[in-house]
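Forum: Protein Structure Q&A
Topic: Joint prediction for protein chains with partners

I've read a bunch of threads here and the consensus seems to be that you should model interacting components together rather than docking separate models afterwards. I'd like to see that in practice. Below is the full input, 289 residues plus whatever partners are listed. Could one of the regulars post the assembled result?
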Amino acid sequence: MPELPEVESVRRGLARAGLEAAVAKVERSSFALRTGAHWAKRLERVRRLQGCRPASVDRRGKYLLWEFLRPGEGSWTLLVHLGMSGRCTVHPAETPKAAHTHLRLRFEDGRVFDFVDPRRFGGLRCDTRSALETSAPLAELGPEPWSPEFSAEALHARLHRSRRALRDALLDQRVVAGIGNIYASEICARAGIDPRVACSRLRPSAWARVHGETRRCLRDAISRGGTTLRDYRNIEGGRGRNQRALWVYGRSGQPCARCESPVSSEILQGRALFWCPSCQARPRGRWVV
Ligand SMILES: [Zn+2]
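Posted by a regular:
Agreed with the consensus. Here's the joint model:
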C-alpha cells in the first residue's frame, strides 16, 4: 500500500508534469471505489473539474490534494487516496486506457491524467479545500513528520501510558500522518527497538530515536522514489528504488542488513511485522532506553 514516500513521489511527478491546460473532459468509470462514509460515490463530484485548470499539488499524510482553478473564480481541490493498488499516470491522449482506469481527465493540451486502481480501495473526492480539510479523513490526521508538532517530547507525552505495541502506535494516523506497515517496521529496525514492545516502556531517549529515524527513514525513501513491492508505480509508470534498501520488511529468514541474523516475522493485529531478533532484542528490564 502506498505510504507517505510513495504518495510524495507521485506528488512530485505530477508537479513535474507541469499540467496547465484546462480539463476538456472528465471520464469516470461506473465502478464504485473506496467505501465508507467519507467516500460514497455521490461525494466524489469529480465532474466539477470540467473546464478547470490544474494548479499546485500538495500532500497530507497518504493523501494527494490537487488544486484546480475554476473559470470564474475560486478553486476546487481533488483529493486522491491511492488505497492498495491505485496509480496515477500522465501521458499523451492517444495512449489506450489501461484496464481498471476509473478516472480520466482529458486536458486541452492533448495529455490525459489517469487514475487506475485494480483493487478499488482507492478514493476520490472533489470539493473546496476548506471543506476537505475540516472533514474526515483529513481533519482526523495527526502532524506531518516534518512539522514542529511531531517531536520526541510529543510522542512521549502522548504514548507513555499506552499499552499498544510501538509498531501499532506508528500506524495510527492521529499520532503521525503517512506511515504504513512497511515504514513502521523499518523505523523500529533503524531505532533498534522490538516493534512489539508496549509504548509505555519507552524512555524519552528511545522516543528520540523513534522520532529521528521516522524522519530519516521517510526522507531516504522519498529520495529513492518510494518502495515498489508489487503495485506502486510513479507518474511515469516506473518503479521506486527503496525496496533494495529495506532492512527487515518482507525479508523474513533473510539476513538483517546490519548484523546478518535471520529476520523474524509474525502477524500482529492482522498485519505482518518484521524485525531482527538480535538488533531489536526484547528489553531485559522494564524500560527501553
Ligand atoms: Zn540485525
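The first helix runs from residue 4 to 17.
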